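Appendix C reproduces, verbatim, an entry submitted by the partner laboratory led by Prof. M.T., so that reviewers can inspect both the input and the predicted structure.
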Amino acid sequence: MTLNRSYIVGNWKMNGALADGAVLDAIEAGIAEQSGVDVALCPPATLIAAFAQKAKAIGIGAQDCHAAPSGAHTGCLSAPMLKEAGARFAIVGHSERRAGQGESNTDVAAKAQALFNAGLGAILCVGETLAERDAGNAIAFVTQQLAESLPISAAPDWLTVAYEPVWAIGTGRVPQDADIAAMHAALRVTLVERVGEGGQSIRILYGGSVNPANAAQILVLTDVGGALVGGASLKAETFLPIVAAAAR
């Protein structure tokens, strides 16, 4: 990855089968003509090895990892296991795991640190609920969440932050451009406060119903270094226009 390039990451969540290697092939063919953008996909764990073997220009990542390198953790995958399968990075702290699996900021920081220890990158997710947004606490909540979720080894060469307003994920709703810009600016300040000058170079992605219709206007906002894309990443015809918008 090159830090001054946009970073577009597709999160397939619990979707995908081996036959969807054709989607990977189509995306790879489509990004061959793009420049100035890094592209990655996070398929379900069952596809990491197969996709990592096929991918040439696309980074393949995982959707989560356990903080421990091994142990009695039924159903979990460690960072070393993911690396062996071919993953280059993993998402940690996604709101669906924070809410559904009760993950705390401390848990997220430990997972991110485990990825660093294994030589992998991390995309660390933060974001507020609609109740927090409506109460006027969005920036305070999200910046505290980031500060408490940052691993001790946080640095721009392996860590990316993703801001995902929880109420916008999969709903089609997107915050106003000014709200996105304000949140990314606040996150930048927090990164510099916690990491030092290196915090200026950590890429901050936006995620939350990103699609071909709204990508261009979001990706030009200050401090928006790319996008974490959900449903629109499942098909080449909806993912590639987002990549193209980032490459402009």
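The beta strands are 6-11, 37-42, 59-62, 89-92, 121-126, 159-163, 204-206, 226-229. Additional entries are available on request from the coordinating office.
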